[in-house]
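For concreteness, we quote verbatim a single protein encoded this way:
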Amino acid sequence: MKPFPRLFKIPLPDWRPFSWGDAVVFVSLGVLLYLGIRLGMGAPAVIKGPEVDLSPGVLPYYVSLSLGRMAAAYLLSLVFSLAYGYLAANRPRAEKIMLPLLDVLQSVPILSFLPVVLLSFSAFLSPPLATEAASIVLIFTSQAWNLTFAWYQSLTTLPRDLVEASTIFRLNPWLRFKTLELPFAALTLIWNSMMSWAGGWFFLMAAEIFTAGEKNYRLLGLGAYLQEAANQGNLTAVAWGLAALVGTIVALDQLIWRPLLAWGNRFTMSMVEDDYPPTSWFYDALRTSKILEGLRCRVLRPMGEALDFLMLRLFPPKDKLPQVEGRTPLGLYVLGGALLVVLLYQGYRGLNLILGVSLYQWGVILLGLLVTLLRVLAALIITLSWTLPLGVAIGTNPRLAAWLQPVVQVTASIPATALFPVVVLLVIGLPGGLNLAAVLLMLMGTQWYMLFNIIAGAAAIPRDLKFTTALLQLGFFERWRTLFLPALFPYMVTGALTASGGAWNASIVAEYLQFGGETLKVTGIGAVIAEATASGDYAVLLAATLSMIIAVATINRLVWRRLYQVAEERYRMD
């Protein structure tokens, strides 16, 4: 692993910024958004959800409902991430479509997903089930992208000697996934799972209460409780809701995340045992359980062996696969042609809807894009300035991590929208006013993507490399230049990519807020989208959303993808 050079000396590889895959993805997503908006325009004029009870006694019930939605969304996110990231990392032809699509999807605001998701489910489910399913899918959209990018980054930075060893041992795709790829990515996936849950809590309020004109889609849950309390200006109820949220997060940390970190420590790439490995009282209790030991030996192990045997039969080693050159079936060409016709027709109809946007409205959209871009850049600079040293400190010091990890999880998971009124009151008299508050809210929702990825990267640094730098008596700056920055570079790219996407997404709630019957907004693309959604101006909603998608996808392709390739080529843990 080479020392970390200055950024302006990094030789950027040849890179084709855009391809036909980008065009297909953009047109397809534009058509999907248009169809959702058309469904929204045809929905009943007045829709009203159930009333939210703000008494503290209902909080255990509301917490259980929200936990169920979060768990279902996380399982969906994990399955999606493993499948999607694996295909993107191992199929170069599919990667041309899948990575642009992932760039676009992470930049689509959660409120723009809702008309498509909710009204599509409404076509074949009853209204309560449709709203429930839509809420789970919307929480999924706030959890899946960072998991997918982290998994993809791990697959593309696998140490070459381990890859060659798996080839020598003739491991089939299943055994390679089980014994190499998943263990190598374990710590990254665990830390990003924490971030996914934090992101889910952050957007839970938007996923459980959604208003478009007189259409009020609402579910009972902790997010709806906090949203309703904030709308009514009931600070006592907000405090009760936050207390329930913090208690839930602490319980999850003790019962799930801390045991997972203690278990996942076995997968660090090191030949030296850690002096202070992560510990968990609950994990230690589970290891001493005779019932679980019997379950593992008599049920889980035979099931695992049967699954391994089945996967070996289904997916034999590559050298046993017949090499047959086949032609693409004619039916696929026919299906592709039919889909192309549908895309072009619906794209034409969507274009007609966008043509209804006036030049003044386009000017507001473009100005909003520029202003929000400046806020996103400010948020990223501030984020990197403090998450890099703190993330390295937590990731390399298990004793410090034992104290700070629960604090970080709790702080990251508190919905910033619930605290925004307090932030506004604190900064309204300062220079910048609401603009400063908007940047702070972006930070509260997105800085954790960077922090959790840096912690995962620091924790994955082999301990023998740390000891080597100590034996060589490298100075502070030299140690950072030759060890920490090169090892953390792929994780910083992943963190910055997901944090920037999260910042664009958070602009929806950072730039437009309704509190106590009053609407607060600042100039920005997020405010344009939120205001168009609230007023039911579907033409502006579609135009603003597509503009944001184009801007974010362009930045991702010209900046973050280049840095991803640099990380893949120069900063593997070889």
User: Anything to note?
Assistant: The first strand starts at residue 209 and ends at 212. The CA atoms of residues 188 and 456 lie 5 Å apart. Confidence is low (pLDDT under 50) at residues 2-16, 43-47, 320-326. Strands lie at 209-212, 215-218, 512-515, 518-521.
